[in-house]
Amino acid sequence: MKTKSTWILGLNAWHADASAALLENGEVVAAAEEERFRRVKHWAGFPARAIAWCLEEAGIDATDLDWVAVNRDPKAAWLAKGAYALRKRPNLSFVRDRLRNRERVRSVLDELAESTAVTRSALRARLAHVEHHRAHLASSFHPSPFDRAALVSVDGFGDFASSAWGIGEANRIELRGRTRFPHSLGLFYLAVTQHLGFPNYGDEYKVMGLAAYGKPTFVGELEQVLQLSPGGRFRLGLEYFRHHDQGVAMGWDSGTPHMGEVFSPRLEELLGPARRPDEPLEQRHHDLAASVQARYEAALFHLLRHVHAQTGSSSLCLSGGCAMNGLANGRIVDETPFENLYVPSAPGDAGGAIGAALEVACGRLGSARPSGSHNAYWGPRFGPEQVRAELAGHEAELVAQGYRLRHVPDPRELCRWTAQRIASGAVVGWFQGKMEWGPRALGNRSILADPRRGDMRRLLNEKIKLRELFRPFAPSILRERVGDWFEREGDVPFMLEIWRIRAERRGTIPAVTHVDGTGRLQTVSEQENPLYHGLLEAFEAETGVPMLLNTSFNENEPVVCQPGEALSCFLRTKMDALVLGEWLLERPAA
């Protein structure tokens, strides 16, 4: 007799990067971010469409769910919250916003019933609130390859804390410490990001790219803004911020998230006038970017050294929004006693959906840690018939315009053809298999180009990306060739570390070598992605270079999810070719 499955739905809801993940008997079945379905970057709200897809993928409906796990706990740190409110008396509108958001988190089951068109009474799932940082820690430890590891989560704020750390062993997580509101490494980085004229949610990655062009000449000033203290602790110079007393306007309603200005006028007195988004970047802006990166790293490594001393583990699992800082991640092994690092494919708030679900499975139900969750491919996939149906609706018009369409069902021939076109200078859209979980395109929803071309960055920006020229492009490399091209050896499967490229190799791959000689690499193994690995092998056979320039398949929008979105992006940009599953589509010759 077949044993009944236990289904756990994990959610990041009413926050930026809303997402859903589904577990069956403790194993990940499906995971996706709402933005991929809504086509709005960092979409905030209730992830109704991601939930619908997860349930459809598993062949179940909402009434089959046993648990719904949310990566927020309205009851967390209530004593600390109360004491702070009595002591500081924060802005009343800020308090009202927080209370309204808390009530939304509590109404998750009502929202689930409404969005899935079932009655509330038909839902038998139990609701589990998982404290924000515990969910982050679970999202990194449970899928990691380590039996025992130190765990650290660092972000802006969640459940009145900005960081947490502890130890993971077997299927259990033990918290050892937290940093409470109002002190936050994430908010420190955000404040300087806004000061530099990058106001949009998630713009911190632009500062990381800009940092390579400057020198850390503002570190002395930033030591007043972010102060280090014993025990791995850090404190903000609160006179430079608004959030602790005035509050900051935040929008988590259905749509694009936004945050108001978090820095106070005192920061401009210290660092100079804030740059407007339409003003040119000057050397002082480059230097400030380098300085905030240096100060952030000093504080992070200060914390990590303390956590290592406290846990005695040589392995580290890092999560939270700040774990997106690939520059810092790439230096952890060199700058701290940790010897091994694991950062999950979705370390930020979206990943809290998987983390909350895994914490219920492992921490509450005692399930073994998942055996098959070591990759990032948990999103929608589309079979040959679905792709062909999408193309059929456009084929006559495309052919009439001179586009060439071919069906190539042999994977080896597909890879050979694509490698040859890229080697000849073509920019190729590559749409295959399951969509990636997390912010990075990892070879299934990617735009690919030749890393040997010195002009490729400019060409990509002219043809497709339309982004700032100071931002680097990333290399995907065969896992077995990493040590030949980079100064270190190891696995970086999710493109979340930046490593130094060997000096003698940099001239060969200028398109993926940043101005400081680094690259944000993705290592590709045959086991995790055999088709993409085969393409890299084919390109190496063609050129002698075992890597490709890999950037996300999008044009100032969320990464494409469905075949129609890939086709639309291809047609409205200047990509040269599109590989859509087994079909090749070439643009007419100029």
Please give a structural write-up.
The protein is of the alpha/beta class and 590 residues long. The chain folds into 3 domains: 7-134 and 353-364, 2-Layer Sandwich (Nucleotidyltransferase, domain 5); 144-345, Nucleotidyltransferase, domain 5 (2-Layer Sandwich), CATH 3.30.420.40; 384-586, Carbamoyltransferase, C-terminal domain (DHBP synthase, Alpha-Beta Complex). A hairpin with a 2-residue loop joins strand 6 and strand 7 (161-169). Helix 7 (185-195) runs antiparallel to helix 11 and helix 8 crosses helix 11. The longest helix is centred in the middle third of the chain and has 29 residues, at 283-311. The model has no long low-confidence stretch (mean pLDDT 94).
Q: Which homologous superfamily in CATH is the superfamily of the largest domain?
A: Carbamoyltransferase, C-terminal domain
Overall spatial form: globular
Q: What would you report as the Rg, rounded to the nearest angstrom?
A: 24 Å
- Residue stretches low in confidence (pLDDT < 50, at least 5 long) are none
Summarize this structure as a short list of keywords or feature phrases.
DHBP synthase; 8-stranded mixed beta sheet; Nucleotidyltransferase, domain 5; 5-stranded mixed beta sheet; alpha/beta; 590 residues; single chain
Write the layout of secondary structure elements.
Layout: E1 7-12, E2 19-24, E3 27-33, H1 35-38, H2 48-58, E4 67-70, H3 78-88, H4 92-106, H5 108-115, E5 126-129, H6 132-141, E6 148-158, E7 161-169, E8 172-180, H7 185-195, H8 204-211, H9 219-225, E9 226-229, E10 233-236, E11 250-251, E12 258-259, H10 265-271, H11 283-311, E13 315-319, H12 326-329, H13 332-335, E14 340-342, H14 352-364, H15 384-392, H16 395-400, E15 404-407, H17 411-423, E16 428-431, E17 445-449, H18 456-465, E18 474-478, H19 482-485, E19 499-500, E20 518-519, E21 522-524, H20 530-543, E22 547-552, H21 563-572, E23 577-580, E24 583-586
Parallel strand pairs: 1-4, 4-5, 6-13, 13-14, 16-23, 18-21
Antiparallel strand pairs: 1-2, 2-3, 6-7, 7-8, 9-10, 11-12, 15-24, 16-17, 17-22, 18-22, 19-20, 23-24
Helix pairs in contact: 6-14, 7-11, 8-11, 17-20
